[in-house]
């Protein structure tokens, strides 16, 4: 499935040519700042990629900006009627602040109206992600205490769960 966001921005299926760009993200300290894991080795990245692409009830998108793979956006579908969608996303740090996440998520909400609920869990101190979700009318549902154990800092961090309900 391919989704056109605008002239420069698209969501599309993974292509083997994307591997180098996506692997670069998994080694970038700024990209990993709010994620709980350390830099991936190439073997770890390949394993992660295979699992994500082949996961049942998952739609795996590559974020393409100006014809370059800059990140991933994953929809994980669950619930008895398959009407719950958990969002996972990561964009290369050099593209932070360009409203890419906001544009993509807005389009996802428009395109996938069959889902009753969208949710995202992010570190509470990841203010850019929290602000972006709230701007799109996601509501804070609660704080998950000591949810993330960060392998880099060896500390626990609280997470925030935010959701968007289609009435």
User: What general outline do the C-alpha atoms trace?
Assistant: globular
Biggest sheet record: 8 strands, mixed
C-alpha end-to-end distance: 26 Å
Rg is 15 Å
- Overall structural class, as computed from helix and strand content, comes to alpha+beta
The H-and-E topology, N to C, reads as EEHHHEEEHEHEE
For the biggest β-sheet, the strand order reads: 1-2-3-4-5-6-8-7
Oligomeric status of the shown chains?
single chain
- What's the number of extended β-strand segments? 8
Low-confidence stretches: none
- Could you tell me the strand content as a percent range? 35-45%
Task: Describe the structure in your own words.
By secondary structure, the protein is α+β, with helices and mostly antiparallel strands. The protein contains 5 helices and 8 strands, in the order E-E-H-H-H-E-E-E-H-E-H-E-E. Strands 1-2-3-4-5-6-8-7 form an 8-stranded mixed sheet, with helices on both faces. The chain is globular, with a radius of gyration of 15 Å. It starts with a strand and ends with a strand. The mean pLDDT is 94.
Summarize the structure.
This protein is 27% helix and 38% strand. It is of the alpha+beta class.
Annotation keywords:
single chain, 167 residues, alpha+beta, eight-stranded mixed beta sheet, 8 strands, 38% strand
Task: Present the secondary structure layout.
Layout: E1 3-4, E2 9-12, H1 19-25, H2 29-32, H3 42-54, E3 58-65, E4 68-78, E5 84-91, H4 100-111, E6 117-123, H5 127-135, E7 139-150, E8 155-165
Parallel strand pairs: 5-6
Antiparallel strand pairs: 1-2, 2-3, 3-4, 4-5, 6-8, 7-8
């Amino acid at each position: 499935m391919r989704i056109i966001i605008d002239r420069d921005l698209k969501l599309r299926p993974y292509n083997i040519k994307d591997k180098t760009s996506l692997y670069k993200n998994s080694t970038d300290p700024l990209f990993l700042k709010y994620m709980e894991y350390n830099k991936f080795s190439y073997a770890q990245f390949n394993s992660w990629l295979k699992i994500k692409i082949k996961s049942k009830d998952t739609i795996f998108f590559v974020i393409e900006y100006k014809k370059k793979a800059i990140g991933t956006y994953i929809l994980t579908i669950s619930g008895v009627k398959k009407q719950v969608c958990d969002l996972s996303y990561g964009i290369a740090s050099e593209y932070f602040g360009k409203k890419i996440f906001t544009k993509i998520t807005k389009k996802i909400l428009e395109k996938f109206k069959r889902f009753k609920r969208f949710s995202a869990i992010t570190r509470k101190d990841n203010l850019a992600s929290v602000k972006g979700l709230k701007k799109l009318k996601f509501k804070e549902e609660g704080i998950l205490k000591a949810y993330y154990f960060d392998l880099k800092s060896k500390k626990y961090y609280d997470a925030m769960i935010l959701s968007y309900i289609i009435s």
